[in-house]
Amino acid sequence: MVAGWFTQDGGEEDFRLLGTRCAACTSVFFPREDSFCRNPACVGGELTEVPLSKRGRVWSYTDGRYRPPAPYVSDPDTPWEPYTLVAVELEAERMVVLGQAVPGVSVADLAVGMEVEVVPGVLGETPRTVWTTWRWRPVGMAS
Question: Cβ(129)–Cβ(121) under 8 Å?
Answer without folding.
Answer: no
